[in-house]
Amino acid sequence: MPTSLLKESNVDVLIIGAGPAGVMACNALAKAGINVKIVDQRPEKVAAGQADGVQPRTMEVLQSYGLAERFLKEANQLHMVAFYNPSQEGGIELADRITDVTSATRYPFEATLHQGAIESLFLDSMKSMGIEVSRPFTPASIQVSENEEELKDTSGFPVRVVLRSLAPSEGQADTEIVNAKFVIGADGAHSWVRKAFNITMEGEQSDYIWGVVDFTPDTDFPDIRNRCAIHSDNGSCMIIPREGDKVRLYIQLGDNSAVDATSGRVDKTKIGPHQLLEVARKSLFPYTIKTPETFEWWTIYIIGQRVASQYSIRDRIFIAGDACHTHSPKAGQGMNASMNDTHNLAWKLALVVRGLADMSLLQTYEFERRKYAQDLIAFDRQFAKLFSGKPRTELNQDGVSHEEFLKAFQTFGGFTSGVGIHYAESPITNSTHQAFAKDLIIGKRLPPQALIRAADARPVEIQDYLPSDCRFKILIFAGNTSSTEQQTKIEKLADSMSSILTLYVHSGNISDIFDIISISSATKKDVRYNSLPALFRSHWSKVLLDDIDVQGKQGGDAYKNFGVDSSGVVVIVRPDGYVGTVAPFDSVKDIKAYFSSFMKVQA
Amino acid sequence: MPTSLLKESNVDVLIIGAGPAGVMACNALAKAGINVKIVDQRPEKVAAGQADGVQPRTMEVLQSYGLAERFLKEANQLHMVAFYNPSQEGGIELADRITDVTSATRYPFEATLHQGAIESLFLDSMKSMGIEVSRPFTPASIQVSENEEELKDTSGFPVRVVLRSLAPSEGQADTEIVNAKFVIGADGAHSWVRKAFNITMEGEQSDYIWGVVDFTPDTDFPDIRNRCAIHSDNGSCMIIPREGDKVRLYIQLGDNSAVDATSGRVDKTKIGPHQLLEVARKSLFPYTIKTPETFEWWTIYIIGQRVASQYSIRDRIFIAGDACHTHSPKAGQGMNASMNDTHNLAWKLALVVRGLADMSLLQTYEFERRKYAQDLIAFDRQFAKLFSGKPRTELNQDGVSHEEFLKAFQTFGGFTSGVGIHYAESPITNSTHQAFAKDLIIGKRLPPQALIRAADARPVEIQDYLPSDCRFKILIFAGNTSSTEQQTKIEKLADSMSSILTLYVHSGNISDIFDIISISSATKKDVRYNSLPALFRSHWSKVLLDDIDVQGKQGGDAYKNFGVDSSGVVVIVRPDGYVGTVAPFDSVKDIKAYFSSFMKVQA
Predict the structure, then answer these.
(1) Where are the beta strands (DSSP E) in A247-332?
(2) Cys-Cys with A225: which of A278, B168, B455, B532 at CB 3.0–4.6 Å?
C-alpha cells in the first residue's frame, strides 16, 4: 500500500508549541485520558539557557503531577538574597542578606534549572503514556467553524489545522491535516496562532537593555552561590546561581550601542558574552571573576511589557504562555506564568471534552489568567524600574535607596512566590460561605498543612492529597468523629452528598470525578478511623486527623490555621488545587448549586 | 574454541549467599571499586514473606548508600503501637496507643517491606555497576592457606572455593574454582561456611512456638494499620501492617501439636495458615477478620537464641548475618542485624584489599559485631518472655502487667531502633579526647543534625555528608571563622592536617580516602565561606554553618547538641558513620596516632 502524502487525523486537543506551557498542557491532558497531539517547529528541545527560575507555587504544582522529586534533585535552591551597594572606598560591599522567600509555602525557596531539563520532566512523563512531540512541524493554516451549533457540540471537531513538516522523511507526508475539538497555541512570544487571529499585544517596550550570561565562575566573590542584587556606580547586576556550579549573570547595559537604530531591536552581532562579562566586572569590583573557557549560553534583551488582548477564539482556540504575556525575566516569572496558564486550562478542557462540564467553564481560563498576567505586568514595571534605576549615593540623592528596594522586594513576595494568586469570583470560585473556613481563601490555592492519618498515625501533607488528576477533592472537615452526636450529623451528610455527587458522574462512579478526604478533629489516641460512613473513607488512607504526630513535630492546628468551624464544613478544592467553594453541613444544597453552575447533570 | 568445563578465577572478595547480609556486602564493596563475586544457591531471589522489619538506624544506613528514597517509597511506616488487653466483657479492648520509636533518629518510625524488595534495592544498585548474583551455585569445598606469610600478604589469593552449579547450561562449566583474597559466608541460619569450619552456635532454644501469616485483611479491627501487641486470655498476637494493604500476624501457638516429638522441629504439615488465622480470631474477639482468598506467605517457628562462637577464620573468611545469630523475629531485628554486620565489615575489607589498612583492622569486625549479637540475644530473651507470657488479669496475678510490658518496650527503644549501638574501645574507636565533643559519643553513629551551607544558606542534614563511600569523614568544627584570631589557628591546623593525611594516601590524593567537611559557628549573615583554607573547602558545598535556616525552622545548636568545644575540634567519622575519634586543634598529633594504629603509611 503506498504511503499517502496527505495525512488527516482527529484529536481532542492539538497543542502547538512544546515549551513549558505546551508540555504542561499535554502532560495534564494525557494524564486525564484525553486524546492529545503536540507539535513543535524546533527539531530538538532546548539544550541550555532560556528561562530557569521556578517559584515555590510552581514547585507545588510540579509535586501535584508527581514531578517535584526529580525537579528538586536536579535544581539549585535559592534560600538567601544578598544585596551589594556602593562602598565608600569605591567598588561594592555587602549591605544585607535576607530570606529569599517569605511567603508560607511548602517549598520556601526559589529554584533554578535550565528550561530543557524542566521540559524533560514533562516529556518523560508524556513518554511513559506513549506521547511524544511531533517535530519539526509548523502550522500553515488554522480555521474554526462559524456554525454556532457545531461550536456548541463537544462531539465534533470544528478546528482544522494544516501542519507542515520541516523535515519530512522519505515517503512520509510533508503536510498533515488535524481536525481538533480544541487547539492550544503555546507557541511563544512570536505566536503564530495569536497572529493568525490578529490578537493584539497591549502594552509597551521599556528603555532598559540587559545582557545575560550563563557560565561556571571562578571568583573570590563570597556570595556567588546566593541570589544577589548588585547596585554599583558602574551599573546594576544580578546573580542567579544555577544547578551544578553554574551561575547566571543579568547585566544592565548602560548605553544603546547594541540596539539597531532602525528596528529598535537588539543586535546580537554588536556585543558578545565577553563584553557582557567585562561590564559585570566593573559592577563587581573589588571582587574579581575569571573569564571562563566557555559560556554555556548568553543573550541580550530589551524589556517589553505586554498582555494579549484576548486569550481565546470562540472557546475553541486558546493561547497560553509567552504567546499571551511578555515581561522582564529577572523576577523569574516567565516560565512559571506559562506553566500555570495551562495548569489552569487543562482540567477545564478535560472536563468539557469528557462531556462532564459545560462549554462555559472554558471562559474562566481567560477570566482568571489574563487578570493574573495584567497584575504580573504591573508588578514587573515597578520591579524593573527599581532594579534598573541608579542607586542612591551621596552624589545621587534621587537614586533608589537600599530601603526602598528592600521594601519593594518584600512587598512583592506573595506575588513572586506565586502563592498569592487569587482568582476572582466566578462559577468555579464561589465565596458565599467563606466565613465557615475563613482562612481557606476561596480562589487561592489550598495552603500546605501537615495532618496525620487516622489509621496509622503517619504524618502527611494535605497538598499530597490534591494530585492534579482532574478530580475535584472534597474535604470533609468532620469535626470530632469520636462524638456520637457528631456521628449522626456525619451520616446524614453522607446521604445528602451521595445523592448530589451521583448527579454529575456516569453510572454512579463518584470516584471518577470526586475524591473524598475526611479530616477529623478526634485525637490519635481515641480515633476509630472506621467509624466514618463508607462514602467518607473509600480507603483507610483517606481519613486524616487534625493532631500532632507521635513525635510532636508535625501537624496540629489545621482547623485553626484554616479557620474551619468545628461543627463540620465541606470544602471543594478544584482540580488545580485552588479552593472552589465551602459549605457548612447544613448548606449542602449550595454544593449542588456550585457544581450545577458549570457541570452537566448526567442522565 | 571449546568451552572448558572447569572455570577458575581470582577475586578480591567472594560472597556466599545473596540474602540481606550478602547483598549489602556486595554493593558496598563494589561501590568501593573492589573486585567482588557473589553466589547464591537459590535459583531466584525471595518473592514474598521472610523478614520485613527495618529499623530507623538501618534506614539511615540505606540512606548512606543512596537507597533510602526508593525504600521509603515502597515501604510501610509504623508510627504508633497499640496495646490491646483482656476486657471485663470478655475479648479484648484498646488499652493504650504509644509512639513506636522514641529514640532521636532521622527516621522516627519502623518500616516494613518484604525481604525480596529490600534485596532488590541492592541488586539493582549492583546491576548498575555491572554485578549480578551467580545462581544457583552451591559451595562444594573451601580451603584456606596455612602459610603465615601467605596469610599476611594481601596481594595473594589464599582462599580456594569450589562452587558447583545447580543448573548448568549446556556446554557451561558445572564446577567453578574461585581463588579469593577474602570470603564472606552470608549463607543463612544453616550456613555451609560456618559448618565447614566447625564453628559452633552458642545458646539455646526456647519453648515458644509462633505462627506467621501474611495477607490482605478485611476486618473491623480499628488498629489494623498500627503495630499491635494483643494480649488476650486466648493467647498473644502481634499485628505488623505492611506495604500496600497487607498485614502480618504473629500468632502464639498454645500447644506443641505442630512440633515433631522426635526432632524437636516444627512440622509444617501439621498446621496451616487457616488454622493460624483461627487461633488469631480467638485473640481478636470481639473484632472479626474475614478469611482471605489467599495467604501471601506463612510459617511456624520455635524461637532459638544463639550466637556463633567465632566470626572469622584467620582474618580471611568471615561469617555474617543469620549465619552468626538467630533470635525471635518479633522485635524486627533479624534483617537489620544482618545488614549491619556487613555494613561494618565492608569498609574494613575494602581498605585492606586496597593496601591502605593493616590486616589487623579486620579483627574489629568480630570484636564489634559479636558483642552486638550477644546483646541482641540477651534483649531478645527478655522481650520474647514478656511477649509470650500470659497477661496479668484478676484470675492470673502472676501474668505480665501492661505497665511491665510498656516499660520493657520503652527501655529497649535505643536497642530496637538500632541507634543505641555503641562499639567498644579499639584501634578504630579511640575516646581519649571524648571531653571535647562530649555528646558525639565515640563508638556510636553520628546523630542527625540540620546545618546550613555557608555558601548558599541551604539547610542540609549532616548525615548526608557521610555517604558510605569507604572514606573517613573529617569534620573540622572550626569555631567562629569570622574571627581573625580563629582564622590564624585554622590555617595552622590546615598545615598540620595536610601533612598527616598525606601519609596514608597514594600520590598525595587526600580526597581518595578522606573527605573534609568544615562546620563554622559564624552566622549566615556574616560568613565568608571562601575565607577558609583550601584544604577545608574542596568545594563550596563542603563548608557548613551551625545556624538556623532562613525560615527559622531547621538547624542551629549543633555545637551545643554535640557538646563541641567552640575553640575548635576535629572529629573523625568512620566510613560506616560511627564516630572514630575526636581531637582538639592542639592535639592534632593524636589524629596521626589514631590513623597510624590501623592504616599503613604509604611510601
Answers:
(1) 247-252, 297-308, 312-313, 317-319, 325-326
(2) B455
